[in-house]
Structures are given as C-alpha cells and as structure tokens.
Write a structure and sequence with these properties.
This protein is mainly α. It has helices at 2-8, 16-21, 30-60, 67-81, 110-115, 119-135, 142-156, 163-184, 191-196, 216-226, 228-234, and strands spanning 85-89, 96-97, 105-109. Helix 7 (142-156) crosses helix 8 and helix 8 crosses helix 10. Bound molecules: zinc ion (ZN).
C-alpha cells in the first residue's frame, strides 16, 4: 500500500534505484536547490524529533534504566543538537552521509535532495542521518540498535546483524520522526499518504541488499514489523480511495489490506 500510494502521490519520493540511474545534478539545479532549502528548513525541527524518538526507543527497549544508560542516550541527543548544516554534494548523488570526524554537517547528494519531494520524506531521511551522528564515534546507540535488530529479526526471519542493525535503527528513528512531524503539522492531506512518504524512497524495483543494508523493500517490511501501530496508521481509513476497507465489509471476512484493493 505504501508503494502504491507513492505512485498516486504528486509529492511521492523517487525510489533510490531510479535515482541511481539518473545523471548527476548540479547544486544549482532547481529541484536540488528546492530540496536543499527544504532540508535546511526542516533541520531544527527534525533534530528535536530525533532526540525525542531516541529517548522514547531507549525507554521502550529498557535501555534507559541505569545512570550509565541514560548518560549514553543524553550524549547521543547532544550530538544531534550540535548539527548545523546540510551540504549539497553532486558526487554523493543518491546518498546522504555523515563523517563522524565532522559531525556537524550532513552531506546530501543533489539527486537525493531533488528526489525527496515532500517534507515527510525529507524528515525521514534527515532523521536517519542524524541518528548515525547520535551514535557517533563512541557507538553510543549500539545496544539500542542491537535490541531493535533482534526484535525485527525475530518477527521477520531476516538476518540483521552488524551495520545492518544500525541502518535499521536509523530508519526506525526516521519513520518515528516523520510520524511525529505529521501529528504536529496541520495538513489537508490524508495522514496515510503523508506517512507513506517516510518509506517511499525504498519502493524499488531492483530490490538488492548488501552486507550493510537490508534490501529496501525488506527495510519497509522490518519497520512495519517493529511497529505494528505504524502499519495500522498506514492503512487507516483516512486515505485516498481507502473506502474499500470501511465498515461495509462483513465482519467475518479477514481484512486483507493488499495493494490490489487500492491500486488504480
Ligand atoms: Zn545510513
């Protein structure tokens, strides 16, 4: 449903495999410029949302119970607070990245800046990068990433170890930040459409994984498996054309919320 929504949404994000096929964009490209401005504008809000999400997750995963654990989390959120700048970068193309020796700057490929057409998509990706910075050189969030990965692996059967755990943890903070952003900002748009934007860059056709990352579509699956309430918000009846999941369904029928019920 998330990826079907992407196709209908004029502000849907471009999937990263499609980004990869595009020629590099100069920093002065209008869409890249618009993306850079969007990222700059959303950075202060996203920093706050990331700090909140990390504390929330630490509590949810019982990693906020001792003074040592709380210190780790507080050091992590302080690093997020210190981030100052988004640096548009032609050669980073469809990637965003942070150098832990210069943790105040997020390098953001111009193709990526141009391909995220919504505030929700941007908050999600910015929050991902900020979470790498939060963990930082001391690896302050290592235990949290591991706990998240263990739960996701148990629920999906996917193998999620090492760097994969960190990437998934960063993605989870990303969608939590986007969800909080949606709750805080008024809009006429249906919340499920807005929430879908937090995932849509992963709606690839070429679903390749590597040692450090789950495949993009498995990332979406793992995120929904980690937070089932996210999935229920995504399929809630505020969406465009979602009336087919309304109360007219006989109660005995299992409600199968597949893309086919909503595709054009
Ligand atoms: Zn990452």
């Amino acid at each position: 449903m998330t990826c079907a929504e992407r196709v209908r949404d004029p502000l849907g994000s471009m999937p990263i495999d499609e980004m990869q096929t595009r020629p590099s964009l100069p920093v002065s490209n209008p869409q890249a410029l618009a993306g850079a401005r969007r990222a700059e504008r959303l950075l202060p809000t996203t920093k706050r949302l990331v700090a909140n999400a990390i504390v929330q997750l630490a509590k949810d995963y019982d990693l906020y119970t001792t003074a040592l654990a709380r210190n780790r989390v507080n050091a992590a959120t302080a690093r997020v607070e210190a981030v100052r700048r988004i640096k548009p970068d032609v050669d980073s193309r469809d990637n965003a990245s942070v150098l832990l020796r210069d943790p105040r700057v997020i390098d953001f490929g111009t193709i990526f800046l141009a391909g995220l057409r919504s505030d929700e998509g941007m908050v999600s990706v910015l929050a991902h990068e900020l979470t790498h910075i939060a963990s930082g050189q001391p690896d302050s969030l290592r235990l949290l990433f591991r706990a998240i990965a263990r739960r996701a692996a148990a629920r999906t059967g996917l193998r999620i170890q090492g760097q994969r755990a960190e990437e998934l943890g960063c993605d989870l903070v990303g969608v939590m930040a986007a969800r909080a952003f949606i709750k805080q900002t008024a809009s006429w748009e249906p919340p499920p459409r807005r929430l879908a934007r937090a995932f849509e860059h992963n709606c690839v056709d070429d679903d390749a994984s590597d040692e450090d990352h789950l495949s993009p579509r498995n990332t979406i699956r793992a995120l929904f498996a980690l937070d089932v309430s996210l999935a229920s918000e995504e399929v809630s009846d505020g969406g465009t054309g979602a009336s087919s999941i309304g109360p007219q369904l006989p109660l005995t029928r299992p409600i199968m919320l597949t893309a086919s019920t909503r595709s054009p």
